[in-house]
Amino acid sequence: MSEMKPINLRAFKKTALKNKGRFRRFLSKLEKEPPRGLEKLTVAIEKEVWKEVDCLSCANCCKTMTPTFNKADLKRISKHFGQTPEEFAKQWLKKERGGDRDWINKTEPCQFLNLKDNKCSIYAIRPADCAGFPHLPKKMKDYVHVHKQNIEYCPATYKLVEKMMTRIP
Q1: Phi and psi torsions of 79, nearest 5°
Q2: 148: which of 70, 79, 137, 141 is 20 to 30 A away, CA to CA?
Q3: What's the pLDDT tens digit per position in 9-48?
Q4: Treating both helix axes as pointing N-terminal to C-terminal, what angle do 155-167 and 140-150 enclose, rounded to 10 degrees?
Q5: Using alpha carbons only, how large is the chain's radius of gyration in Å?
């Protein structure tokens, strides 16, 4: 078993880009024909992944992606800042283009990320989207589409899929 090492983002991005197509094809196949025991295998592999991936050495999700902020997030986080949800949204967020038009960060990296130590300044009250990321413990068959996107942003997702590919023919 590997041990936890700091993530070299440049090397990760290069590797993820190189393997993205192969990984996505594998995930599409999983989506169409989930093998017996998939959920059990996912849970076991996820435990291995977290022994190897140190999120604080990476924070690529906070640097290159934005969470969506739901109504409860807006209420909770704005209260923390002594603002109304409308004031908070006006200061920090924008409406996403197209679709349901969710609230998302105005900037990348995330305004709440401390770039010196990769820690979130609102960790205890962070958006639900952040708290759940990268959604590894969720039911695999329901989250394959999310993992297809996240393999190139998240080393933990990448490692989960990589390990699955060695165990599922």
Answers
A1: -60, -40
A2: 70
A3: 999 999 999 999 999 999 999 999 999 999 999 999 999 9
A4: 120
A5: 17
Q: How far apart are CA 65 and CA 56, in angstroms?
A: 16
Q: Cα–Cα distance between 103 and 93 in angstroms, integer?
A: 6
93, two tokens: 């967020």
Is 128 in the same domain as 153?
A: no
Distance CA 52, CA 55 (A): 10
* Number of domains observed in the structure of the chain: 2
Task: Name which of 163, 169, 167, 165 is nearest 52 in CA terms.
Answer: 163
- Specify if 3 maps to a domain: no
> For residue 5, what pLDDT band results from cuts at 50, 70 and 90?
confident
Closest of 54, 57, 58, 88 to residue 71, by C-alpha: 88
The CA-atom distances, in angstroms, between 148 and each of 12, 25, 40 are 16, 9, 20
User: Which pair of tokens denotes residue 75?
Assistant: 């209420």
Tell me if the pTM is above 0.85.
yes
| Residue at 62 is within a domain | no
